[in-house]
Write a structure and sequence with these properties.
Blueprint lengths: L2 E5 L4 H10 L7 E5 L5 E5 L7 E5 L6 H17 L4 E6 L18 H11 L4 E5 L14 E4 L2 H11 L4 E5 L5 H11 L2 E8 L7 E6 L6 E9 L3 H12 L4 E9 L5 H7 L4 E5 L11 E4 L2 H12 L10
Parallel strand pairs: 1-4, 4-5, 5-6, 6-7, 8-9, 8-11, 11-12, 12-13, 13-14
Antiparallel strand pairs: 2-3, 9-10
Helix pairs in contact: 1-8
Length: about 300
Amino acid sequence: MKLKLIAGNANPKLAQEIAQKMGMELSPATIGRFSDGEIQVKIANSVRGADCYIIQPTCAPVNENIMELLVIADALKRASARRITAVIPYYGYARQDRKAEPRVPITSKLVANLITASGIDRILTVDLHARQIQGFFDIPVDHLYARPVLFQYFKDLNLDNPIVVSPDAGGVERARAFAKLLNADLAIVDKRRPRPNEAAIMNIIGDVKGRNAIILDDMIDTGGTLTKVADAIKNAGALTVYAAASHGVLSGEAIDKIQKSSLKEVVITNSITHDTALPKIKVLSIASLLAEAITKIYNDESLNTLFV
């Protein structure tokens, strides 16, 4: 069975890097728009009987990129691809994973239904906002973590007296695992969120005084929560404050907030592409991680060695 890599328009740089790591070329395809905005897809070469991997994070513009993924999948299915895997480094709508109040949708499940209905056979993704989202799909989901990439970076920094900080109670498990890898202590920030995308810092559980703190989260969106947590940690006596996250959504005024904050550096991955260099922000590549995962899936091998 032939292996084919197809890149959507969401993150072509990452797709190209994955192909290079695998010693392959991306399969040529035309993915554009008709004059009225409808998505136009044409797969240039035969994919009959092939094992196809669509590399397409569903980041901003979220709806456009989701629809593009579905249309590419339909084109491959109708071209008789034997298996279609959606490589979704960042899964949009992941935060709408429950009914937090009456009369709201569970959009994460809706998107999972759409992806399944399009004919996609398997999902490969990185750091879902909630691991339970894997259960929203009625197809296999390989859920990777960017933790090995982030860990290696901070290990090489060799920070003196580090402490890993979870910015909320929900991220404690993630932060604890990272702290264990770094042989560091753990602190937790207790906060209340009065309105969406806003956070009020209430209390820091743990001693950050005289420590080099690393705030660990799965994503950074508007930067409001992150910068407030960073300022609270700095005011509590931390020497330096770093932040690490798998996904740099960086919407709204996030970059400006980070630049003006007490953060020394923010470390993210290239699961979401950004066109320009960003002040105070270090971008690490997950291409090797995804390339190895794709190779193992293609060869029907276990992915256990990719987890740290």
